[in-house]
């Protein structure tokens, strides 16, 4: 078995009266993430972790933010496409561990739905998807609610030829 590790990071600007989609869940909040797609920071960090593990570049390389096909798209679809891309190199997803940095809202009540959405998108087991969160303790752009950040690591695996 060949096992590889990947790391992903993403940040999106927060704006008033904007939808806030994280892990495919629409959060109930007065501010939301701005981007070309649905700006799902968690899905994007996971995409980058998967692509990085397979040495396939990053999300912007595969899904350009000037391409009208991706405008407003659910990032769970982009995640499915990343799983297809690593699949073409013979890899499947082992596990994912992610960290969200956002001041508000509290995401604890949404975490299981996010894990389910991510697991469905990658065609994996919810037990292999971990999502955690921390605030910025009122400091920096996270603390001022100017932005939202996500980090993700993953393992991917394939049988040795
Ligand atoms: N947006 C968030 C941020 C944090 N949590 C949960 O609260 C705990 C305490 O947060 P700290 O920033 O003080 O570390 C943290 O362990 C998370 O479980 C959250 O649900 N949503
Ligand atoms: C996902 C893409 C493509 O719609 O756009 P955004 O939603 O702006 O997100 P970003 O994290 O900048 O990643 C890459 C993009 O090309």
TrEMBL record:
<feature type="binding site">
    <location>
        <begin position="63"/>
        <end position="67"/>
    </location>
    <ligand>
        <name>4-CDP-2-C-methyl-D-erythritol 2-phosphate</name>
    </ligand>
</feature>
<keyword id="KW-0456">Lyase</keyword>
<feature type="binding site">
    <location>
        <begin position="58"/>
        <end position="60"/>
    </location>
    <ligand>
        <name>4-CDP-2-C-methyl-D-erythritol 2-phosphate</name>
    </ligand>
</feature>
<feature type="binding site">
    <location>
        <position position="44"/>
    </location>
    <ligand>
        <name>a divalent metal cation</name>
    </ligand>
</feature>
<feature type="binding site">
    <location>
        <begin position="134"/>
        <end position="137"/>
    </location>
    <ligand>
        <name>4-CDP-2-C-methyl-D-erythritol 2-phosphate</name>
    </ligand>
</feature>
<feature type="binding site">
    <location>
        <position position="10"/>
    </location>
    <ligand>
        <name>a divalent metal cation</name>
    </ligand>
</feature>
<feature type="binding site">
    <location>
        <position position="144"/>
    </location>
    <ligand>
        <name>4-CDP-2-C-methyl-D-erythritol 2-phosphate</name>
    </ligand>
</feature>
<dbReference type="InterPro" id="IPR036571">
    <property type="entry name" value="MECDP_synthase_sf"/>
</dbReference>
<feature type="site" description="Transition state stabilizer">
    <location>
        <position position="135"/>
    </location>
</feature>
<comment type="pathway">
    <text>Isoprenoid biosynthesis; isopentenyl diphosphate biosynthesis via DXP pathway; isopentenyl diphosphate from 1-deoxy-D-xylulose 5-phosphate: step 4/6.</text>
</comment>
<dbReference type="Pfam" id="PF02542">
    <property type="entry name" value="YgbB"/>
</dbReference>
<keyword id="KW-0479">Metal-binding</keyword>
<comment type="similarity">
    <text>Belongs to the IspF family.</text>
</comment>
<dbReference type="InterPro" id="IPR003526">
    <property type="entry name" value="MECDP_synthase"/>
</dbReference>
<comment type="subunit">
    <text>Homotrimer.</text>
</comment>
<keyword id="KW-0414">Isoprene biosynthesis</keyword>
<feature type="binding site">
    <location>
        <position position="12"/>
    </location>
    <ligand>
        <name>a divalent metal cation</name>
    </ligand>
</feature>
<comment type="function">
    <text>Involved in the biosynthesis of isopentenyl diphosphate (IPP) and dimethylallyl diphosphate (DMAPP), two major building blocks of isoprenoid compounds. Catalyzes the conversion of 4-diphosphocytidyl-2-C-methyl-D-erythritol 2-phosphate (CDP-ME2P) to 2-C-methyl-D-erythritol 2,4-cyclodiphosphate (ME-CPP) with a corresponding release of cytidine 5-monophosphate (CMP).</text>
</comment>
<feature type="domain" description="2-C-methyl-D-erythritol 2,4-cyclodiphosphate synthase">
    <location>
        <begin position="3"/>
        <end position="156"/>
    </location>
</feature>
<feature type="binding site">
    <location>
        <begin position="10"/>
        <end position="12"/>
    </location>
    <ligand>
        <name>4-CDP-2-C-methyl-D-erythritol 2-phosphate</name>
    </ligand>
</feature>
<dbReference type="InterPro" id="IPR020555">
    <property type="entry name" value="MECDP_synthase_CS"/>
</dbReference>
<feature type="site" description="Transition state stabilizer">
    <location>
        <position position="36"/>
    </location>
</feature>
<dbReference type="GO" id="GO:0008685">
    <property type="term" value="F:2-C-methyl-D-erythritol 2,4-cyclodiphosphate synthase activity"/>
</dbReference>
<protein>
    <recommendedName>
        <fullName>2-C-methyl-D-erythritol 2,4-cyclodiphosphate synthase</fullName>
        <ecNumber>4.6.1.12</ecNumber>
    </recommendedName>
</protein>
<feature type="binding site">
    <location>
        <begin position="36"/>
        <end position="37"/>
    </location>
    <ligand>
        <name>4-CDP-2-C-methyl-D-erythritol 2-phosphate</name>
    </ligand>
</feature>
